[in-house]
């Protein structure tokens, strides 16, 4: 398997652990469903059990509560899986593992229909005891609420669930079960042989070939199944008679279509694999990157050992270097260049602002873009955007949210209809970017504010750390609607972002206390709630945020103060983060070496030359999910364990729609 | 990068009489035997700026400059030479070519700059702050021959005290006040509103406005349209912009237009801009703007060049001497020549007599002849000059085709092209106009030889 896909496998496992009641059977024809939208899934859900590889009704499609009473009751025993490794072993023993279709990437991108959403948000509701009654706004994000975004996704899910249960509850149920069992008995030996042989020669191409064949077969079966669904009242013919039919049909009827689709899905999959972060201790790669780079950077002399895999450059000469070759960088659009400069100079801080600035720049760049003759807009524009992105990365490593936004944009470019004229394509891209900003950031912020305000009661003392624009909006809105509360702003050197927040809150008349993080253990005693912003949240619920956040969250946890993280869903990331080392950013070491308003230039000069001294200015840290009580996001208030659900269920719409 | 470059090459500057003449406009004055304009063009070319507009005052000068440009760099650069009427000033010149300006931002470079500060840095600063105007400041150059005590005292008195008074904010990024030395007799006025908004102002007199500006085109054109009396960029336009940065009259109409957008859309826009502005440390402009809603402000930024960089304007005779000296001396990376082991450049075709010494930091042009027992120190001698025997040339510039008789002594002087010095002339701190003949045996000090 492609090593790059390694990390992706983990979230999947993690997801399994969370949904103990849902059996993510590996045979679930995911690739197939990733082709068909939810609407198609409706028709396919019940007949799937007839298809050769889908002996079991996909548990993801049917609400788990019903599973136990239904045909899956017999399979319920091995289902509650404690952990990833156990899960894998069990699958191996169970010998239902179908190597061809067990592709974690599939499952990640596969369109598992959103039927499980209901459970997730309800779970979270029950976990945290939402007082739904006290806020009409709160209910907005729940299934029947008035939010377009959620409703749009919701509707097919619900109807599908209904259809699925209806079809299983009708007379066919027994039939299905019986035939499924008989078939599983019949096909087991054959399958085992197949898997064994697969294991022996697990070349990628072969596996893919098999996968495609299966997909084609499934597609055929589905088509057949939908036919049959119409005449569902009739008793089913016996399985063995039916079974060979799809296999024969497959190549004739759907192969061309499904192959084409398969290729495009493959492509999507490849694109969607998050770029592996460059490891800066990998000599050859760094050299390669250097040759490509536009910004001249010198590596710092005193590198911090543990963080060699992160870029550590000498600060101070980047900006002059970059600014002096403003005119030689012909390939970079000036708007992008400006954003890069601002990132490098630290003029823009804060994930939302950086992301918005970048998207605006891309909008401008796309507006000014003309396809060169003899070139394809999709290809060329993607290459252009790639160039811009690598330029921006050189200026400052991208945040997770920016990565997500870029993925969205690239998907949009890829999805452009071929017959669109250039101006139309550009206009559509720009409007898509605008929509992304409006919906994923601005509207999301509004929703988050509406949710989070319900958590602020009169007389509370709220603590926030650093500066987060969402938290600021929440505080200002709560103040606006007349809640009486006090704010404690905890800040830290060297950026002192909290001062900006403080200034604005005080001018609006909020009651504020300002302190540095050193005093957090004292101040936490009087705090009743902690609101934190986020740079990203990973699928294991780990919060990735400004350095110091973990400390605040842990102290809050020790004082039993609820920690509420406010984060737009577009910042979620499917990766799993266990520590702050693997993925982080190093700031300017001088920033912590020098104290402002003190003339210690001489002092730091001598320190610079000291080989035994290394400055570590980490920008981010990771807060384990245990310390987070709740995450307020645009899909409602959820526990950190529900992040993968959001990533899985909702991320698709950006990527695939 | 959406920048247009305008080089203001001037015409026949009165400051530089008698060095400039009908044949030699200011832009073509030789600095180390290359026209001064070539330094600017090289600088811009090194920044990959190849589409240039050169504005020259006067048709004759324009023809001359255009002729030189087409002969020198037609293959490398795309240069458009525009002639404007004489004595319209820099602002007037820009007004005259306003219809050529189309880009979003305009980089204005004076044609008489010898510098190695990248103009890209100015442009980048301009872009980064989204400023209306960005000026480049550099450290005041050391004027006069630095170590020769002979002429030192004399030069100091001669140099016009042209300090600019420059007010910067605490981050040294914004320009709060600028007053040119010409205006300041005794006192200077500082705007209270700006001082209040910025909180702190740092007043510097050791910085020099180097006449490289980046302007937002819309702002520049509005100012030029609204203030037809403005003549000079430096003395009128820039101070005006700096003065009014908090109460702009340049954009009186923009605020009102914004109000009729869709409510929802506008709301989003407001939130958006708020997020963006909250993300950065608010400059005092934003703070001020938020205090008074109706006001529209804009930013005047500065780029302060590193002290190690070289930047001198050739705007006086003294500066001309300094530049010539520095380009073959301290700042010799600018000249583009390779220096010999003696730190001088002697063209292979130059002929030196016996016992003639050419010291370090000297330049001897192509085909020049120097007689016996001569001594050349810290001087630039042009092409095809004929210098007799027993001549001393110190700290001087001798332009092409000059003839210097035997026994002359030249110190701190400029001999223009085709000038003729007869025998035993002793010149000190003199300027000799092109084609002028100084008769034998004269001893002159601090004089200007020009035909009336």
From TrEMBL, chain A:
Residues 44-53, 211-223 have a biased composition (Low complexity). Residues 109-119 have a biased composition (Polar residues). InterPro entries: IF-2B-related, IF_2B-like_C, NagB/RpiA_transferase-like. It comes from the Eukaryota. Gene3D superfamilies: Translation initiation factor eif-2b, domain 2. Pfam families: IF-2B (PF01008). Residues 1-129, 157-296 are annotated as: Disordered. Residues 189-210, 224-234, 258-272 have a biased composition (Basic and acidic residues). Belongs to the eIF-2B alpha/beta/delta subunits family. This is Translation initiation factor eIF2B subunit delta.
Automatic annotation (TrEMBL), chain B:
Keywords: Cytoplasm, Initiation factor, Protein biosynthesis. Coiled coil: none annotated. Residues 347-430 form the EIF2B subunit epsilon/gamma LbH domain. Belongs to the eIF-2B gamma/epsilon subunits family. GO terms for molecular function: guanyl-nucleotide exchange factor activity; translation initiation factor activity. Residues 5-245 form the Nucleotidyl transferase domain. The lineage of its organism: Eukaryota, Viridiplantae, Streptophyta, Embryophyta, Tracheophyta. GO terms for cellular component: cytosol; eukaryotic translation initiation factor 2B complex. The keyword Protein biosynthesis applies. Its main location: cytoplasm. Acts as a component of the translation initiation factor 2B (eIF2B) complex, which catalyzes the exchange of GDP for GTP on the eukaryotic initiation factor 2 (eIF2) complex gamma subunit. Its guanine nucleotide exchange factor activity is repressed when bound to eIF2 complex phosphorylated on the alpha subunit, thereby limiting the amount of methionyl-initiator methionine tRNA available to the ribosome and consequently global translation is repressed. Gene3D superfamilies: Hexapeptide repeat proteins, Spore Coat Polysaccharide Biosynthesis Protein SpsA, Chain A. Component of the translation initiation factor 2B (eIF2B) complex which is a heterodecamer of two sets of five different subunits: alpha, beta, gamma, delta and epsilon. Subunits alpha, beta and delta comprise a regulatory subcomplex and subunits epsilon and gamma comprise a catalytic subcomplex. Within the complex, the hexameric regulatory complex resides at the center, with the two heterodimeric catalytic subcomplexes bound on opposite sides. PANTHER family: TRANSLATION INITIATION FACTOR EIF-2B SUBUNIT GAMMA. It is found in: Cytoplasm, Cytosol. It comes from Brassica napus (Rape). This is Translation initiation factor eIF2B subunit gamma. The keyword Nucleotide-binding does not apply. It comes from the Eukaryota. One of its GO terms (biological process) is cytoplasmic translational initiation.
